Backbone:
């Protein structure tokens, strides 16, 4: 039996070597199997990994520094680029952080609209992750079909905000425009077609004997260890702990919806896959409930200091012109204070720690990025497994380089 | 709040801010013991976040390290704040209590130069290894200060 030694540097070393013939392998920084720019220096004995040393920061863009110079509404496009697989969640989370700081109450309709958009984003993100697990196990078919479905979600984003990937969606106080008829038609078509195609994808993989043999037991982590590492999101739930920000600290009226939190047992690749599959179904159910119960009302809060007036008003009324000028030039006054606000991003607890000194820009903004925090457990999860499992572990943890490096 | 006062000899300043968050200001020496009590007796088993902030005008307390802990059973959050002087920017590491503090502290070190005493591997994490300053400190302007083509008198910070 081999034994694991944890060195003082946090590096893990396996004692067992086959013939003392150890190779060093550079996995990354640009390797197609890592789905992002990060490097792992692996010590391997044949196929078996003896130690791993991750290096990150290749696409660090100094968002926290940039944010200290930008007015609040101009920070939204920065948040797009954190987890770019589900930008709307980041955008809306940021808007809600500012709303909490400024004490803005939004209408119920905005809450429900936001829930629909955020759950669509969650579906898109989980689809990418799960279909990529398929690709890494050699099942390319599901990937091609699920990316068509993701495309439909992007078309829905286009109807709401005009953009597809980096959405810059909504505004502080609500949405830029109401859901239009084309959006409703496309969403209804999506809700009808997607479950059929998704079930087909599910049948391709979830109970497929070859797939199960491949992923069960790959990259496991226990619940205790996952909490020690501050895991969150599907990866923590796959390990068996039912922490979900949507339920623990409901935001945006999530308490109005009936949904369950899927939980895994072993925290391995298969559990992470199945948890995400089930979360997609729950998200669909939340979207349907939100559509059914959609309250009437306005699609934005009545906060002229933060919400741009309609353009034609700017030319006709004095107040609108003043507010328009103040918002565009970033001269809106905002209270001093500090806020921690978190939403359930597709990868876990996405937190915003915001310190305002009353100035036009944040004094300090820190993003609690779930990827960054749980990726440090990666060496521990792959040491003593084989190289191909390491690739699977990485794709099933859904490490997004943009979120990792901020 | 009572247990915090008991364990810090009433020297910690506790307050609940207008956003219902329990804020606790502690000194660097009290931190480890307080976190030990919070984690092992009060159920704050989840370390949400570690970050720092720089307040150059507060002489003797230029830096602040901010910890967010979460009690997942009672759903209570607490924010611990430790003020540090620029001349003595040392604070004990939390990696003894939370493995996950490792990279969070490395990030804080990288951007603010906070020295986490006892950290197993305190290296830069997001910036280049040969960088010789800590970029989120306020003395480093985002833009090149020698630029003359851009006048920010009215709308710059």
Residues:
């Amino acid at each position: 039996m081999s034994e694991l030694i944890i060195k003082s540097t946090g590096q893990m070393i396996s004692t067992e070597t086959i013939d003392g013939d150890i190779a060093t392998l550079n996995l990354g920084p640009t390797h197609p199997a890592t789905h992002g720019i990060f490097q792992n220096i692996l010590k391997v004995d044949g196929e078996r990994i003896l130690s791993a040393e991750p290096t990150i920061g290749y696409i660090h863009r100094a968002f926290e520094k940039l944010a200290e110079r930008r007015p609040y509404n101009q920070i939204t496009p920065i948040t797009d680029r954190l987890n770019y697989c589900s930008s709307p969640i980041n955008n809306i989370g940021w808007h809600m952080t500012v709303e909490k700081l400024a004490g803005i109450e939004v209408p119920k309709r905005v809450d429900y609209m936001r829930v629909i958009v955020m759950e669509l984003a969650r579906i898109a993100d989980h689809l990418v992750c799960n279909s990529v697990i398929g690709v890494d196990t050699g099942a390319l078919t599901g990937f091609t079909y699920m990316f068509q479905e993701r495309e439909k979600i992007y078309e829905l984003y286009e109807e709401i905000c005009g953009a597809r990937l980096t959405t810059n969606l909504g505004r502080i106080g609500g949405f830029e425009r109401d859901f239009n008829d084309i959006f409703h038609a496309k969403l209804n078509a999506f809700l009808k077609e997607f479950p059929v195609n998704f079930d087909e994808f599910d049948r391709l993989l979830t109970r497929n004997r070859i797939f199960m043999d491949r992923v069960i037991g790959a990259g496991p982590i226990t619940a205790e260890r996952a909490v020690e590492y501050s895991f969150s999101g599907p990866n923590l739930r796959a390990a068996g702990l039912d922490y979900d920000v949507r339920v623990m600290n409901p935001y945006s009226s999530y308490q109005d919806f009936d949904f369950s939190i899927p939980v895994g047992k072993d925290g391995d690749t298969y559990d992470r896959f199945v948890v995400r599959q089930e979360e997609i179904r729950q998200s669909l159910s939340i979207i349907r409930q939100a559509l059914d119960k959609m309250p009437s009302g306005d699609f934005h809060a009545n906060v002229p200091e933060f919400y741009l007036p309609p353009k034609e008003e700017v030319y006709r009324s004095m107040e609108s012109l003043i507010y328009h000028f103040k918002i565009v030039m970033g001269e809106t006054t905002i209270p001093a204070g500090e806020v921690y606000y978190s939403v359930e991003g597709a990868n876990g607890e996405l937190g915003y720690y915001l310190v305002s000194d009353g100035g036009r820009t944040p004094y300090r903004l820190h993003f609690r990025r779930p990827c960054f925090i749980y990726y440090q457990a990666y060496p521990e999860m792959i040491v003593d497994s084989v190289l191909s499992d390491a690739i699977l572990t990485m794709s099933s943890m859904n490490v997004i380089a943009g979120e990792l490096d901020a | 709040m009572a247990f915090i006062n008991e364990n810090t000899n009433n020297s910690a300043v506790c307050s609940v801010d207008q956003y219902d968050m329990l804020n606790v200001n502690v000194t660097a020496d009290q931190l480890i013991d307080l976190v030990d009590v919070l984690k092992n007796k009060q159920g704050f088993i989840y370390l949400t976040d570690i970050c720092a902030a720089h307040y150059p005008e507060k002489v003797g307390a230029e830096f602040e390290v901010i910890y967010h802990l979460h009690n997942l059973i009672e759903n209570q959050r607490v924010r611990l704040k430790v003020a540090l002087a620029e001349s003595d920017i040392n604070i004990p590491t939390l990696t003894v209590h939370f493995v996950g503090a490792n990279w969070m502290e490395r990030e804080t070190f990288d951007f603010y130069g906070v020295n986490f005493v006892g950290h197993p591997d305190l290296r830069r994490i997001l910036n280049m290894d040969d960088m010789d300053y800590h970029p989120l400190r306020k003395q480093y302007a985002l833009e090149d200060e020698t630029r003359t083509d851009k006048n920010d008198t009215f709308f710059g910070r």
About this structure: The beta strands of chain A are 4-6, 12-14, 23-27, 39-45, 48-55, 337-345, 348-356, 364-368. Chain A has a mean pLDDT of 90.
